[in-house]
Amino acid sequence: MKELVIRKLDANQRVDKFVRKYLNDAPLSYIYKLFRKKDIKINGHWVKQNYILKENDNLKIYISDRELEEFNKEKIIIPTDTNLDIVYEDNNILIINKPSGILVHGDKDEKRITLSNKVINYLYKKKEYNPSSDLFIPSPCHRLDRNTSGLVIFAKNRESFNVITNLLKEHLGITKTYIALVKGEVDIDGKIEAPLYKDDKLNKVVVKSVKEGAKPSTTLYKRIWTNKKYSLVSINLLTGRTHQIRAHFAYIEHPLIGDRKYGDFKLNNEFKKEFNYDSQFLIALKIKFNEVIPPLDYLKNKEFNANFPKKEYKILSNLGINLIDYNI
């Protein structure tokens, strides 16, 4: 039997998620079998898997020493460099300016050189993260596509992670502003409301009806500049769907320049030849905290900006756009 006292940083999460992280090498079937057999108790009482842990709860897991040794494995940090463009850092969060070309999280092909792994290595070297004792792994609160640059918020502890992710779900407490270069001349300002459906067979997000399983999706934008061939736009999301910006602008026939999945391939080739640019022109430029609850209420009304990427800045300059004139 293993007995644990829940610390403040491990509270406010479901007990099954905690147990899954503690017995990090155990099959899910084994974890939920423990609950069915009533081999997990809180303060002397059997609880369901959705019980929310509280600070100082006494958790008992009734397993053998052999099973504990087999399933409670030390987390391994995969070494990588810690070159990070840190825009802001405190005891609770990190805001990183992610360059284009790097994943936020690893996929089946890439586990080492990811933004998440760089952050973990950075905090490990600072002795702010200990894989031997910390069940919460410093994590991104949201994602950006590999070829999108800009700001990503990382949480250093569970409480901060819960606050940030809830604010992002509401799309009120935190405002994220993107800058994109798109095809053609868009309206001065606009609102794109088109439900999005993730089609795994096509490996794309497509517009469908809610009845067909699509999720309501809303994108707001303002035109900053246009020469009729291209438009520079500022974008805010009222929902946060996969590839939302890319799919929505393709839907209104103004796809992002350089977008290989949703874009205008002929125009992309022209743009590549002229500017040597082969990526979607999309930057997560600003993050503003509006209403924020404790323990992150000190962030209220604070705004953070990414340095505009040099390559994109040069392209806009060549197009005759002075970002200073547009307060960007």
TrEMBL record:
Molecular function as annotated in GO: RNA binding; rRNA pseudouridine synthase activity
Catalytic activity: a uridine in RNA = a pseudouridine in RNA
Top EC class for this record: isomerase
Keywords: Isomerase, RNA-binding
Keyword flag Nuclease: no
Pfam family, one: PseudoU_synth_2
Keyword Oxidoreductase in record: no
PROSITE patterns per the UniProt record, alphabetical: PSI_RLU, S4
Active-site annotation: 145
EC number(s) given by UniProt: 5.4.99.-
GO biological process, alphabetically ordered: enzyme-directed rRNA pseudouridine synthesis
SMART domains documented for this protein: S4
Domain RNA-binding S4 stretches: 13-73
Coiled coil regions, renumbered to chain: none
Listed CDD domains: PseudoU_synth_RluA_like, S4
Assigned protein family: Belongs to the pseudouridine synthase RluA family.
Role of this protein: Responsible for synthesis of pseudouridine from uracil.
NCBIfam families, A to Z: rluA_subfam
Protein known as: Pseudouridine synthase
Organism listed in the record: Candidatus Onthovivens merdipullorum
